[in-house]
Amino acid sequence: xxxxxxxxxxxxxxxxxxxxxxxxxxxxxxxxxxxxxxxxxxxxxxxxxxxxxxxxxxxxxxxxxxxxxxxxxxxxxxxxxxxxxxxxxxxxxxxxxxxxxxxxxxxxxxxxxxxxxxxxxxxxxxxxxxxxxxxxxxxxxxxxxxxxxxxxxxxxxxxxxxxxxxxxxxxxxxxxxxxxxxxxxxxxxxxxxxxxxxxxxxxxxxxxxxxxxxxxxxxxxxxxxxxxxxxxxxxxxxxxxxxxxxxxxxxxxxxxxxxxxxxxxxxxxxxxxxxxxxxxxxxxxxxxxxxxxxxxxxxxxxxxxxxxxxxxxxxxxxxxxxxxxxxxxxxxxxxxxxxxxxxxxxxxxxxxxxxxxxx
Length: 359
What we know:
Layout: E1 16-25, E2 28-34, E3 48-52, E4 63-66, E5 77-82, E6 86-95, E7 105-109, E8 174-178, E9 182-186, E10 191-193, E11 201-206, E12 217-224, E13 227-228, E14 232-233, E15 238-239, E16 249-254, H1 256-261, E17 262-270, E18 275-279, E19 285-286, E20 293-302, H2 312-320, H3 322-327, H4 332-358
Parallel strand pairs: 7-13
Antiparallel strand pairs: 1-6, 2-5, 2-7, 3-6, 4-5, 8-9, 8-11, 10-20, 11-15, 12-13, 12-14, 12-16, 16-19, 17-18, 17-20
């Protein structure tokens, strides 16, 4: 009789990779949700996300509501109500033996996001009101290394009146709020912030000034490992301002026809000395240590061998030529009628003279 080998025992302990972040929240109501379709194992529920108050000293008025028990986010969303300034612990669990992309989480302050940057009046405002971004005026074609600025003024949403920068509002394409510096303006192709300064960036806004306008770009801020802010359109402020809350990186991409004809690259430095880029991939630019972002540079340029869309200014000149063609044949008949009148009068006068002669 053949002997059967005993089944190998199942391991009693499964190793997990765990990462945790503490997020500081201003008073308000927030929604936390998955930004992508992360593959979650139905048997283990991994990777899993748990949202709970931090250990020790949690605000008793802090409320966290999840669809799963025990603070598990699952495949749904969570609501966080912070009546006061509060902190929330977000823990991500992954199977150490399975290589999967971690869940991408986003946090939206309900009713308050996205917000546009407005000039501060007196002390730094912690709650600027939303403002719609106006379209960019047509301008010249982009240079090989950056989008050339036009003469159109920068939208007020990204141009604080008291910006500590040598770039004028008419030239600015980037606005950011930097620790201990305040609001700063820059152009594409230039550094926003100073590498090695150890002064982090709290938020930023982008508004291209050439034929690529504010409607043709969008961007996100990195808030934590796997945490991204909602997508912001050109001219909208992304991050915080005057709250001493750094962003940990950024992500930018072009939209529409310009995404096919142009590329966007990002170069960044962080407070721990990490330097990344320039990278042209549509991925978050962040340090492995999640150190705060201290400086970044964005370059938009035409792709090699790809036809660049016609500039709006050229289309306008072509349209202006049309009225000239239609105006050519217009008043020929009135001129002919005007010439016939003197001849009729002369003939009438001649007949009258002949009658007087016969009489």
